[in-house]
Amino acid sequence: MEVVRSRQALTQAIRALRVLGKTIGLVPTMGALHNGHVSLVGLGLRHAQAVVASIFVNPAQFGPNEDFSRYPRTEQEDLEKLKAAGVSIAYLPAVDEMYPQGFATYISAGKIANELCGVFRPGHFDGVATVVTKLLMQASPDSAIFGEKDYQQLHVIRQVVRDLDIAVRIVGAPIMREKEGLAMSSRNRYLSESERVTAAVLYRTLQQAASKLREGRRAESVIKDAKNALQKAGFTKIDYIELRNAQTLLPTYSAPGRLLAAAWLGNTRLIDNVEV
Length: 276
Ligand code: AMP
Hints:
By secondary structure, the protein is of the alpha/beta class. The chain contains 9 helices and 9 strands. Strands 1-4-3-2-5-6 form a 6-stranded parallel β-sheet, sandwiched between helices. Helix 6 crosses helix 7 and helix 8 (193-214) packs antiparallel against helix 9 (219-233). The chain is globular, with a radius of gyration of 19 Å. The relative contact order is 0.13. Adenosine monophosphate is lined by residues 29-30, 36-37, 39-40, 146-147, 149-150, 173, 175-176, 183-186.
């Protein structure tokens, strides 16, 4: 595995793969890697002959009071995991490589970006759309893999790629979970042992709500019950639980759809979603 830190070195390393006739899959991450990220690399290798994985904690997608500075950074372990997973190129640009002095152009991700997580994280999806577009321009992969864990993000990226005519296939990857159901996330490292036990209630609650919705119960009352269940379990704040159309992400009142949630345990914000 080649480790590169500049755009120029990335271009050269990719050119070397292209000369060998290899198709390329891109797996963007922010590091602090877990098995969810590793599964994305595995999926990447099913869609392309070589995988480029990036690690970049993107300041543009963090709000002023968010966890940018304390976001876990575990470069050595990450590189070992990427190598073991079969990555050809690990791309780890510094912040001023991605946003050099004078950088001024941001992508505005549209209406859906201001809903769900966007209500609570203004500007977040513009930051995501900007960095992902830059990574796609820099690596020009044949496909790029994103997890359904960040379901709204996947939706926004599909929209950006469609709207800006970027020639890449976006592949969605299923959510990898801990044994007790908690969706794997780099931010799970913030959780204390007891918070971790409570965190698993989020998935269980969403699953229970989804099965009630499948039985035809009204979304409004199902969601109200789910919020109560989370509060009772010890979640300190619930940003939202919403049923949305799985394709358009527009509000819907019945299955089939996607039930999405964001809730806080102390200082840690967890998101999850399930198919309905
Ligand atoms: P992050 O490092 O959190 O920005 O995530 C990088 C990529 O990994 C994104 O496409 C995420 O959706 C994906 N990802 C994160 N957690 C999981 C998970 N538990 N299962 C599958 N994909 C995930």
